[in-house]
Design goal:
One of its GO terms (biological process) is defense response to virus. The protein is of the alpha/beta class. Helix content is 47%, strand content 17%. α4 packs parallel to α6, α4 runs parallel beside α9 and α7 runs antiparallel to α9. The protein starts with a helix and ends in a 13-residue tail after the last helix.
């Protein structure tokens, strides 16, 4: 598995092929990134495989046998993603044989809420931080922050699953109402496409989900076995769990984009009472969320790595990672 030395000495290399015609090839044992300019190829950078922790390719590209062979030799995780960051190809040599981790996941009791409460705690903590970053002093924001504080105090005493979900939902309702009070907020309605802001958040959360999945795969987790979200057909419950503390990144990016007029209701069409983002605007929306998440790629990797170590080591919840927004 990946160590602290790997993080210090190696990097996650992201190749953006969404807007540029680029190619990767192996030359003299190094990774070469090239870009087509007319009939010519221009070398953008060279990178030794020894310095690579993972190679993320976003967009359409050809992956060659020598590239996969070098990634295998040097233990580089290779992830190829669509423009919406959905992984279409994943390979990591170190993750394939980690049966002990998957055994531990299936043995974990659904009655144990300790890790689930840690995840919800981190989510509420970041919701409070996001509200504080707005610097608003109106009654909605002040009340929402107070409710976050009260919930954080109450959380350790929660001992029932439905009670935990209820507490999270109550805080989220107040948080969204205060955070998007100037955006004509009418409630969170996932996948219903009832208004522009909800559709935008759905897009952002989907991109976050796909990005998080790539990191979780690097450690060999069974994506369908979570600690908070329960087993459900085709639902990657663990990804749903670990993305919770990072949702604030998407919330903040969406708020800033609407305030700066990067996002607008004009970018959507209304079809049968459902809002749909215009095709020509998809790249602009993807780019806003993509830039925010790529800037946090090492934070996300370290979070998943620390979660893996704590989970495998059956450590106290006090040692589980906390992402600070």
């Amino acid at each position: 598995m990946f160590t602290h030395k790997d993080i210090e000495m190696r990097t996650i290399f992201v190749v953006n092929c969404i807007e540029h015609d680029r190619s990767l090839r192996v030359n003299s044992g190094e990774l070469m990134l090239e870009e087509f300019e007319g009939d010519k190829k221009k070398t953008l950078t060279k990178f030794p495989f020894q310095k690579l922790l993972a190679l993320f390719i976003i967009g359409h590209i050809t992956v060659t046998t020598p590239l996969i062979d070098k990634c295998k030799k040097y233990g580089v995780a290779l992830v190829v993603m669509k423009p919406n960051l959905r992984p279409v190809f994943f390979w990591a040599n170190s993750a394939e044989a980690n049966y002990l981790l998957r055994k531990r996941q299936f043995e974990y009791s659904t009655e144990d809420l300790s890790i689930a409460k840690c995840i919800v705690y981190n989510k509420m903590l970041n919701q409070k931080a996001a509200l504080a970053k707005t610097r608003k002093k109106d009654s909605y924001t002040v009340d929402a922050i107070k409710q976050c504080d009260a919930a954080l105090v109450t959380l350790p005493d929660v001992d029932e699953y439905n009670q935990l979900m209820g507490l999270e939902g109550t805080v989220a309702k107040t948080y969204f109402s205060a955070y998007y009070q100037n955006q004509n907020w009418r409630g969170r309605h996932p996948r219903m496409k009832s208004d522009v802001l909800n559709v935008t958040l759905d897009i952002g959360y989907s991109i976050l989900f796909n990005f998080m999945e790539s990191f979780i795969r690097m450690f060999g987790f069974d994506l369908y076995v979570g600690v908070y979200h329960r087993l459900w057909f085709k639902r990657k419950s663990l990804v749903c769990d670990l993305m919770e503390p990072f949702r604030c990144i998407i919330d903040h990016a969406a708020l800033l984009a609407f305030n700066r007029k990067q996002f607008s209701e004009k970018d959507f069409t209304l079809i049968k009472q459902e809002y749909h983002l215009k095709y020509e605007k998809c790249a602009d929306y993807y780019r806003v969320f993509y830039d925010e998440l790529i800037a946090r790629k090492m934070d996300i990797f370290k979070f998943v790595q620390q979660y893996y170590r704590c989970f495998m080591g059956c450590k106290s919840v006090k040692e589980y990672p906390i992402f600070e927004f």
